[in-house]
Each structure stands twice: as structure tokens, then as C-alpha cells.
Design goal:
Strand content: 15-25%
Largest sheet: 7 strands, mixed
Structural class: alpha/beta
Number of domains: 1
Oligomer: single chain
Radius of gyration: 20 Å
Distance between the termini: 19 Å
Strand order of the largest sheet: 2-9-6-1-5-3-4
Number of strands: 9
Order of helices and strands: EHHEHHHEEHEHHHEEEHE
Length: 276
């Protein structure tokens, strides 16, 4: 039987946040790499990953088409399916479609509303669920099962590492530009009024604390990942990555999306068979 597959996307997780976290269970899979996302926000990045791509290494002196082909052919080794080459992805360009054709039960559990089941991301999945709680990786793990004689493909989008990086007991740092804009909208209805200056918006201490909270969130999901490792059969292959990074004041930016900064494209990547 082909290997089970679990693809996990830590939403908005910066590469350096992942590296600074202990993440002892994630590191059991293999060497953590710095890679680059195809997009700077959630939806297009997840579309890329569900095509069968993973974050790229930004290689030099190669044709881009060769990078794509290598990405698609890498599934042969990951899942030990000899005929899972690039030609199998044509024309749908869907990892879920390819795996369902190989007998996989394909299930997705997502945290971000922009990935909800009414989008095209839902196509070719036997089950696709938007979790009711933004921070419920633990709930996902409870629902995951590996039963019967068919392999499983689980596609998981984790919200814990996404802004505002709030776990139980976390305190939200005050960022004057963000909080001020909200107050202005409430008061005037149109967001009118004085726009906060850059030095008012980017309180370095507050942004540093937000970054630290994201690191703590990585360690939290790593603990939950340990439970998933114990639950998964030995022949389960894990691919763990982020959809994009996050700016914490670098270059005058905060967040992700319409942001062209390297910190928004730097992502962690680690993969491997279930560690014993």
C-alpha cells in the first residue's frame, strides 16, 4: 500500500520564527530548510501547494520549467509510487486528484476562512472542513484517523501561527496605528481623521513581542504535532511548511499580502517519514 501523506501549512510562519523555536518534534523529520513561497498571502500560496508544488529554493542558472518538473516528480520518492510523474498531474494540476486516482482518501482541515469549502480548493477532496476555531490544530489531530486498507492524504492549514498569534493566556500587544485605525472607523464610520505616523504605528517593542508570540505558537503546534506523530502509522510521510512569512516592521512593513519584502517570502520547509 502507498504511504500515507500529511501536508501541514503553518500559516504566516516566518522561517526565523521556526528556527528560533525549539520545535523538537518537527526537527525529528529531518533538516529544516529555508525556502521561498510562491506568493505573499494565504490563498494563492495554498493553490500552488495543492497543485503539487512546495516552497522553492530559488535556484540560479536553471530554467523555471525544470524546477516545476522536479517538484512534481519528487512525489515518487515521497510516497514510493513509481508512476507518479509529472505527466500524471496534467491537465488538472491537482495533488488531491492525482492521489485520489491512486486510491487515497483525501481530507482537508483548514483554519483560514479564505480557504473555506466554497472555494475551488475543495475540489477532489472526499472531505473538506473549515474548523470553527481559528486555533484548533489539537481538534484537527483528534479528528484524524488512519483506518481501513486505503492510504490517507491529509491537508492541514494551521491558524495558530497566523496574526494575532494568540494562545490561551496570551496578551495582545498594543500597536497604536492598528488600534487607532479601528477607533477612527468606530467613531466616524469612514476611517477619517489623522493617519498615524510611521513611528507611531511601528512600536518596535510591540512588534518584537508579536514576533515572540509567533515563536511560542510554533512550539505549541510542535507539541501537538508530537501527538499526531504517535497517532500516525509508521508509513506516514510528513511535509511541513509555511504558506508565506510575515513582516514585523522590517522595511516599514507589518503583516503580509501586498508586501514585497524577503521576510514575507522566507518560509521553513522540512519533510520526512514518521520518526520512530
Amino acid at each position: 500500500m502507498p504511504r500515507n501523506l500529511v501536508v501541514m501549512i503553518l500559516d504566516s510562519c516566518r522561517y526565523d520564527s521556526f528556527i528560533r523555536a525549539k520545535a523538537k518534534n518537527f526537527r525529528r523529520l529531518g533538516e529544516v530548510e529555508q525556502r521561498w513561497s510562491y506568493a505573499s498571502w494565504t490563498a494563492p500560496s495554498h493553490y500552488s501547494y495543492l497543485m503539487g508544488l512546495v516552497p522553492h529554493r530559488s535556484p540560479q542558472h536553471v530554467y523555471a520549467s525544470e524546477v516545476y518538473k522536479k517538484d512534481f516528480s519528487s512525489w515518487v520518492d515521497r510516497l514510493d509510487i513509481p508512476d507518479l510523474g509529472f505527466n500524471k498531474f496534467i491537465p488538472q494540476l491537482s495533488l488531491a486528484k492525482v492521489l485520489s486516482d491512486h486510491g487515497y482518501i483525501c481530507r482537508a482541515k483548514v483554519s483560514m476562512p479564505v480557504l473555506n469549502g466554497f472555494t475551488l480548493l475543495n475540489k477532489f477532496f472526499a472531505d473538506y472542513k473549515l474548523m470553527s476555531n481559528h486555533n484548533d490544530f489539537a481538534g484537527m489531530v483528534k479528528e484524524i484517523e488512519f483506518t481501513g486498507d486505503k492510504p490517507y492524504f491529509y491537508f492541514l492549514n494551521l491558524g495558530e501561527t497566523h496574526y494575532p498569534y494568540m494562545l490561551d493566556g496570551s496578551k495582545m500587544p498594543h500597536i497604536s496605528g492598528v488600534h487607532g485605525a479601528v477607533k477612527q472607523l468606530a467613531a466616524s464610520g469612514d476611517g477619517g481623521g489623522r493617519i498615524a505616523k510611521e513611528d507611531e504605528f511601528f512600536d518596535s517593542d510591540a512588534l518584537r513581542e508579536l514576533h515572540e508570540q509567533q515563536i511560542r505558537c510554533v512550539d505549541y503546534v510542535d507539541e501537538v504535532f508530537g501527538t499526531l506523530i504517535d497517532k500516525a502509522p509508521p508509513d506516514t510521510y510528513f511535509v511541513v511548511m509555511a504558506d508565506h512569512g510575515e513582516a514585523f516592521g522590517e522595511g516599514g512593513y507589518f503583516g503580509h499580502g501586498p508586501v514585497m519584502h524577503e521576510k514575507v517570502f522566507e518560509v521553513p520547509f522540512v519533510e520526512g517519514l514518521r520518526p520512530s
